[in-house]
């Protein structure tokens, strides 16, 4: 078996067929509730690759963020103080995205807690073990590789036919594009479903114009623990500000909510969600 350390895989070389601005589409299947493994959620994810780097994100979340930004821009233009929460539906179950810079050989996770945006640089190296086993995915010849990363053991299948040393989420550093990767329990699976050329390479501003705060994994974990203890803390602080005390909020049915109802609803939603959200892709982030 051949071992490859990420420290020696610094160059990301694109084949001529997939040189610039290409989108690789994956189906992400995940079991977010460890107590209900029959409940499988699926979402299409895009890996947009350029000569400088890549961006991995939810297709549904991108649509939602684009519509939300348009509505916020419109509200600012007419100086409106009314926000209609029921106007835009978010069908995405995946809110994170990942960006990679090929020249700097760095990877960053973009995520949030209660609307606050965070950028978390990845400090853990990926040490791959390549094995001789061969298979085929969507007409591409693929080879097997394994690694221990993010607190899980992963099995990957990569193709030399697309010599881009990248893959879904934070995975990278193999001799070719990763077309499939899953943890050993099959709780989180990324499956390649297709690809196409793209003219526009989305930037962070296409998703959300709110500035991100760069923090460490340890700091994010502490913020998450604080959020679980008091999920409505941010809303309480917002309502305490005289500048926004006159803002009204409506729910999906059109009902105008009081401040106490907004806070209580937020606390209940988080409480209910946490009961069935306990099998995160990166367990160490949410321990």
Question: In words, what does this structure look like?
Answer:
There is one protein chain. With 287 residues, the protein is an alpha+beta fold. It has five helices and 16 strands. The chain has helices at 59-77, 204-207, 217-229, 233-240, 259-275, and strands at 2-5, 22-30, 41-49, 53-58, 82-84, 97-101, 106-113, 116-121, 127-137, 140-149, 152-159, 177-183, 188-197, 213-214, 248-250, 256-257. The chain is globular. The two termini are 34 Å apart.
Structural descriptors:
13-stranded mixed sheet, 36% strand, alpha+beta, 287 residues, disordered N terminus, globular, 5 helices
Write the layout of secondary structure elements.
Layout: E1 2-5, E2 22-30, E3 41-49, E4 53-58, H1 59-77, E5 82-84, E6 97-101, E7 106-113, E8 116-121, E9 127-137, E10 140-149, E11 152-159, E12 177-183, E13 188-197, H2 204-207, E14 213-214, H3 217-229, H4 233-240, E15 248-250, E16 256-257, H5 259-275
Parallel strand pairs: 5-15, 8-14
Antiparallel strand pairs: 1-9, 2-3, 2-13, 3-4, 4-6, 6-7, 7-8, 9-10, 10-11, 11-12, 12-13, 15-16
């Amino acid at each position: 078996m051949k071992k490859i350390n990420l420290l020696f895989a610094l160059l990301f070389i694109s084949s001529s067929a997939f040189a610039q601005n290409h989108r690789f589409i994956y189906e992400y299947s995940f079991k977010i509730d460890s107590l209900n493994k029959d409940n499988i959620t699926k979402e299409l994810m895009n890996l947009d690759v350029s000569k400088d780097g890549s961006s991995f994100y939810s297709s549904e979340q991108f649509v939602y963020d684009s519509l939300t930004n348009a509505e916020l821009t419109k509200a600012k233009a007419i100086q409106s103080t009314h926000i209609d929460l029921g106007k835009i539906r978010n069908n995405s179950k995946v809110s994170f995205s990942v960006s990679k810079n090929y020249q700097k050989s760095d990877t960053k996770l973009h995520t949030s807690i209660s609307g606050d945006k965070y950028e978390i640089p990845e400090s853990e190296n990926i040490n791959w073990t390549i094995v001789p086993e061969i298979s085929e995915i969507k007409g591409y010849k693929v080879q097997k590789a394994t690694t221990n990363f993010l607190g899980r053991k992963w099995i990957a299948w990569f193709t030399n036919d697309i010599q881009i040393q990248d893959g879904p989420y934070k995975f990278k550093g193999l001799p070719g594009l990763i077309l499939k990767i899953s943890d050993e329990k099959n709780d989180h699976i990324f499956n390649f479903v297709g690809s196409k050329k793209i003219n526009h390479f989305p930037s962070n501003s296409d998703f959300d114009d709110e500035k991100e705060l760069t923090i460490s994994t340890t700091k994010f974990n502490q913020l998450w623990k604080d959020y679980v203890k008091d999920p409505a803390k941010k809303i309480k602080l917002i309502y305490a500000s005289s500048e926004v005390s006159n803002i009204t909020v409506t729910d999906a049915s059109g009902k105008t909510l009081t401040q106490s109802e907004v806070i209580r609803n937020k606390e209940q939603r988080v409480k209910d969600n946490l009961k069935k959200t306990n099998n995160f892709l990166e367990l160490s982030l949410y321990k």
